[in-house]
Amino acid sequence: MIPAAFDYVAPSSVEEALAALAQYGDEAKIIAGGQSLLPVLRMRLNAPEWIIDLRKIESLRGIRDDGDAIVIGAMTPHSVVGSDPLVQEHAALISKAVGHLADAQIRHRGTFGGALAHADPAGDLGAPVLCLGAEFVIAGSGGTRTVAADDFFIDLFETAIGDDEILTEVRIPKHTGWGAHYEKMVRVAHQWPIVSVAATVRMDGGTIAEARVGFANMGSTALRARGVEEAIAGQPASEDAVRTAAARAAEGTNPPSDLNGDAEYKNHVVGVLTRRALLAAAGS
Amino acid sequence: MTRITLTVDGAQVSDDVEPRLLLVQYLRERLGKTGTVIGCDTSNCGACTVHLNGTSVKSCNVLAVQADGGEVTTVEGLAQDGRLHPVQEAFRECHGLQCGFCTPGMIMQSIDLLNTNPSPSEDEIREGLEGNLCRCTGYHNIVRAVQHAASHGSSTAGATS
Amino acid sequence: MTATEVENEIGRDRRRKEDQRLITGRTRWTDNIVLPGMLHLAMVRSPFAHANITSIDTSAAKAAPNVVTVLTGSDFGEELGVCINAWPITPDQVTPGHSPMPSDRVAFAGEIVAVVVARSAAEARDAAELVDVEYDELPAALDLKKAAADETIAHPDLGTNKSAYWVFDSAEAGTGGSADEAIAKARTDGIVIEREYRQQRLIPAFMEPRSVVVDPTGEQYVMYSATQIPHIVRFALAATTGVPESKIRVIAPDVGGGFGGKLQVTPEEWIAWAVGRRLGKPVKYTETRSESLLSGHHGRDQWQKLTLSAEKDGTVTGFKVELLADLGAYVAIVGGGVPVLGAFMFNAIYKFPAYHFAVQTVLTNKTWTDAYRGAGRPEATYAIERIMDELAVEVGVDPLEIREKNWIKHEEFPFTTVCGLEYDTGNYEAATAKAKEMFGYDALRAEQQQRRDSGDPVQLGIGISTFTEMCGLAPSRVLGTLDYGAGGWEHANVRMTPLGKVEVVTGASAHGQGHETAFSQIVADRLGVPFEDVEVLHGDTQVAPRGLDTYGSRSLVVGGEAVVRAADKVIEKAKPIAAHLLEASIDDIDFAAGRFSVRGTDQGLGIAEIATAVFAAHNLPDGVEPTLDSDAAYDPVNFSFPHGTHLCAMEVDTETGALTMRKYVCVDDIGTIINPLIVAGQVHGGLVQGIAQALWEEAVYDDSGTLVSGSFVDYLLPTAADTITFDIDHTTSPSTTNSLGTKGVGEAGTIASTPAVVNAVVDAVRHFGVNDIQMPCTPERVWRAIRTGGKGGATTEAAMPHFEAEGEGA
């Protein structure tokens, strides 16, 4: 219940934070909202010597319109993201997923960037940012670089963020007018998903012109279901067409077997949830 | 040690703390605010819920140093001049507690829920309390209590905002 | 004024006296207690299920900042005491010695091998990580069935895992016929149903983690503990640690739930006791939730082999029950007694002519098991109510009909069962009729048929469970015949203060049940004083010196009756004083509504006036003691037998196996209700615990004996969002075994709801060939059962890895 002792610094700018990272290197851990990190520290599964707290860096907070994208600061709390009108209008999939993330208290503290940097494959935000083709803005000593969503998640709890880098913001290309749905399967409400499916579609009349589908907890990272996307593009938003496309949901997945279901079960369920999510996103 | 200064239940406090000290431990051990309790180590149970800068948080999942400069309200800071907060009153009226261990967190989260949604549906209440575990009541009367508080205008009496 | 003109307190929905403190945070949890110079303990626990301890190096820990000492089992002698089993169920029960801190061998993962004492809890925890323990791992007995076959021995020195084999046979007992004969006959000309059900391992998961503070600085050693049983703890400390009872005071301050999980004498309490005595300083230990789930006792964990015989029309002729019960690594305080408490309940509300029960208790290298809400009776009710559904299917009738055919009719009470118990009152017809109507049974059956006919992917199931249980533990003579180590009486003391207030002392020890309110109502009625004038005191052996504490739905039925009797003695003591003061004959004194009056006159005195007169003692009759204070110890003559009918509708998503509860109705007969608000709360909470066994909870070990569901991330308690609003009501046939007519309600909801839910789930998918789904009915298991017509298979013994060591800040 009590973390091992550590030293603490709360820099007031990204530059100071990067300097601290450079100084303490492997022995440091960044804390954003801390909602995933603190349980790890309390159970002493990890014991960093330094904690670098980003809470004083105001530039990391907030959501802004940037032309063809919206930009979400890494330190923006989930509760702010979930109720933000820009997000609702241009990235409805994220609004819907955030509403399912953990519980109200954790949404008040936990941050958008922190959750993505934590890279739990069962996290609720990975699949939506993959679907929306987000770009991750990462600051390092040499300046900032941008990583595409497809290149961001590397493995279980591993991202493209280097040891000496900080995620500062996430750019979400606008998907204005796209239908969206987040289908999450849990046994009890406070669980991580057994399987989640994020789906967003651009409709053209009764036809699904384009679709993006992503999964949580179906592998060592959040996944895109490209086979499903290909199969449904240009198809009518009918039960049959969607069912046929959703049959490809389990292609390339590698879900973990755990108390809540084995891989076979999850590979089955992901197809059912994909069908439901696509139909809901298409509004039918 | 890191110096922190914050306002807790209306009083300003200032202490040197170890950075690893959790907010809930600071409240209980340094300030004697033992009304807020610790029920788990994975932030599932919500028994430690307090308000930090106007919204509910799990105080076992916040470092005291992270709350520096902030304003904290605990279950002990709700009643004003001996008058219970309407949500406290509703929990008693509707028998929304038995052993009472989850109650501080339940009350604090219920107030937060009503602050953002003064007239929640039953489903909204149930979902709004999904971060708080109770082992005694089966939640039935907790939901009644929140409904009771909503219909008796709890949000206008909010002791925390 | 007569009694009938005063509103009775009994039956009123009084708001609880306890709540003012609890809703404002003015609480006294054990972990809140801070004493001058208090030291903190951290436990070093074995990561292995079974291992020899080859060495323990405490030097680094002892050198850590602010560490006072580090102690291991070998640092203590007999003053460490032992954890006791109070109920050896057979004379030849095999019972491993249970040191609170063994020095040679650990028998489950989580067992304590060393204790660190430091000036702060954080420093104690820091130093605990520095204790270097070398283990030599031994093979672990984990699977219950394999352990029962002695494939691997949990305690090698004992040579067997079989602890006790306990049998009840109605033919041998003379209370019924031979179940074997009935089954043999049915195999030729009747129906025989054979099933094997699993009662999964559960964790009580009270919300307040256990905590203990020991203060050895006064003349009495004081232990504060988050326990249900302060009196039993005191008894056991004295019996095993050599400290005289008169030198021990045990206090259970505010206790945050128990559900049987705090009905224990724990290694943590005993270690804190020994360390406090050794150092002469106050010490505190508060467990983390992980420690609580790992080392607090677990519940249930049985395999139930059942054989039911019936005539072709569904009239049951015999029932044979063969249980394997997992004790875990040690025989806990009630231990093997838990299945025995269920032994007399498998026949439930039915008129079975022949019954055989046998339980083999088995030692394994897992956390010990003991009482969990219902203790034996939920297991029994589950077995019979599941198999009665199977019988209904076999006969081809509605499951309510098969129950009605076999249950005891209301006019047949009192009824002596095949177990020899006398059920005093009950009316199963009335409760069932009311439940059926509230449920809309026929409409839901019609909807079920319609969904089945249309092949709806969401199928509807209706689950039924009736139940009865034996409450009010327990008649001491019965406990004696069962070799239980104590009696079952309860004690009360009622005192009148000089100004006419009332103090009620009870030996029951509440931890959320609302005793202060309910007992105040009883005494207010009995003595005719205002509800507000009654103060109920409990939970401290110095305040309430005699008692047997709270469990087994006994507080009201046994403890409440003791309070009634003590109050009545107060009245009897006051009567001659009233007569004397009123200058009347005692034979002419009536007592009603708090007033002693002279019959046929308007002369009278209130009980408060008598109390003041007794305090002054200026004018008492000759030879009368100047006190009204009265004690009573009540030993029940029989159990009480609440019953009820529960109906549950479940929707099953046949594509995913996901389950949604649609409706839940229960009508319970718990006799006279003292406070309907408190009763409703007990029922609601009980229902969710029972439902949670059916759907969510399971303590799972992996094949090395590590508890996989070791945090609330993986041990799934439901939230408000996972549960529904319940429709509850009552029928009332007052018990005749106590003067209030109460029957007990603490466990009722838990007992009936588990089979009601599983029956509903199975009913929804029976047309796929499913006749059982192992609990908890996870979506995966339901889906597999639908696909294969089987039981849904086993769970993968792995946790979700959300709190891995690696990971960025979030």
CATH second-level architecture of the largest domain in chain A = 2-Layer Sandwich
The number of domains of chain A? 3
Largest sheet of chain A: 5 strands, antiparallel
What's the total count of β strands of chain B? 5
With strands numbered from the N-terminus, the spatial order across the biggest sheet of chain B is: 2-1-5-3-4
- Which regions of chain B have little confidence, pLDDT < 50, spanning 5+ residues? 156-161
Number of discrete domains of chain B:
2
- Principal-axis shape of chain A equals globular
Task: Name the overall outline of chain B.
Answer: globular
**Largest beta sheet of chain B, briefly?**
5 strands, mixed
Q: How many alpha or pi helices of chain B?
A: 5
Summarize the SSE layout with pairings.
The complex is a heterotrimer of chains A (about 280), B (about 160) and C (about 800).
Chain A lengths: L6 E3 L4 H11 L3 E4 L5 H6 L7 E4 L9 E4 L2 E5 L4 H6 L1 H6 L1 H8 L4 H6 L2 H7 L7 H6 L3 E6 L2 E6 H4 E3 L2 E2 L6 E8 L5 E7 L9 E10 L2 E10 L6 E2 L1 H7 L2 E2 L2 H8 L16 H19 L3
Parallel strand pairs in A: 1-3, 2-3
Antiparallel strand pairs in A: 4-5, 5-10, 6-7, 6-10, 8-9, 11-12, 12-13, 13-14, 13-15
Chain B lengths: L1 E7 L2 E7 L5 H8 L18 E4 L2 E4 L12 E3 L12 H8 L9 H14 L5 H7 L11 H12 L10
Parallel strand pairs in B: 1-5
Antiparallel strand pairs in B: 1-2, 3-4, 3-5
Helix pairs in contact in B: 2-5
Chain C lengths: L18 H6 L14 E7 L5 E7 L1 H4 L4 E6 L32 E2 L5 E7 L2 H8 L3 E6 L6 H5 L13 E8 H4 L5 H11 L1 E12 L8 E5 L5 E5 L4 H12 L6 E4 L15 H13 L3 E4 L2 H7 L3 E12 L5 E13 L8 H7 L11 E9 L13 H19 L3 H8 L8 E2 L5 E2 L4 H12 L1 H14 L3 E11 L7 H6 L8 E7 L5 E5 L8 H13 L6 E4 L17 H28 L6 E4 L2 E4 L5 E3 H10 L13 E5 L8 E11 L5 E11 L6 H20 L31 E4 L17 H18 L13 H10 L22
Parallel strand pairs in C: 1-12, 10-11, 14-15, 20-21, 27-28
Antiparallel strand pairs in C: 1-5, 2-4, 2-6, 3-5, 7-15, 8-13, 9-10, 9-12, 13-14, 16-17, 18-26, 19-20, 19-25, 22-23, 23-24, 26-27
